Amino acid sequence: MKNIFWLIVFFIGLVFLTGCNSNSSVDKYPDKSIQLVVAYSPGAATDTQARIIAKYAKKYLGQEMVIVNKPGGGGQVGWNYFSSVKPDGYILSAYNLPHIITQPMVGDTSYDLETFEPIVNWGGDPTVFAVRSDSQIKTLDDLIREARQSPGTMTIGNAGKFVGQHLAILLLENTAEIEVEDVPFKGSSEAISSLLGGHTDVLAGNLSDIYRLGSEVRPLAIAAEERHPFAPDIPTFKELGFPQIIMSTDRGIAAREGTPEEIIKKLEKAFLKLLEDQDFLKEMEKAGADTLILDRQQVKKEIEQRSKNYKELLESINVVN
């Protein structure tokens, strides 16, 4: 009887100590550098913006933030990797919308939407269709006319299957009643290189990339509700007769599902302060990166609504049943 008593005491003490150690680790968080997985190549829009965030991270987190690039499959390689990391807050991921919503809907991914515990959203990046500056295609009308004359031959590069830019291509095909050859790459850097090298005819890219490319490209249309202040000369698809084509890549930071809520709250508070830093905002503007700052609850609400919208969109263009 006495042995059973001490055994019970031992287990109660063990549980208490485990709880104390757990609380202690949360209280001390972060006590080492934090990795941020970027599912795209160095130099791409997501990477460029994530590196600006990382530059200011130590000021607000107290630790360095290290960018870890894992490109491939339009982001799937990096996010598949992220789905298996330890949920302790030391490996975070940059997320892209609609990518993390739509890719699991249409393909076999190791991750799903529940893999991500959103912390903050930092930016919105409308899709822009562009050609090389020496292209014979001068306008969106030219693009559509050529595509109708030679169905399935015009090539449009993008950052991967069922990312925002690819969805914009599908929308254009559906609404303009044309057929093109969409060419998915590992990410936007490769899609841009293909356009500039003359290997693809058109780029469906991010405004921030088009902005940085300057005179090397000729923008044709932007998939936004209205013209963008960063590039007021680019007409919208809407004003050119295609109001259905509204698409952007929104970016933010997420923890792995299962990360303690106390750690997520610490991260949210720190990142929201970082995203208000005036020097940070100036660097983002210089990079052509528009900010769309949302807190955790706002992002969760946005994702919930977009999940419904994108499912309806994919159904309407016969991608999913």
UniProtKB/TrEMBL annotation:
<comment type="similarity">
    <text>Belongs to the UPF0065 (bug) family.</text>
</comment>
<dbReference type="Pfam" id="PF03401">
    <property type="entry name" value="TctC"/>
</dbReference>
<keyword id="KW-0675">Receptor</keyword>
<dbReference type="InterPro" id="IPR005064">
    <property type="entry name" value="BUG"/>
</dbReference>
<protein>
    <submittedName>
        <fullName>Tripartite-type tricarboxylate transporter, receptor component TctC</fullName>
    </submittedName>
</protein>
<dbReference type="InterPro" id="IPR042100">
    <property type="entry name" value="Bug_dom1"/>
</dbReference>
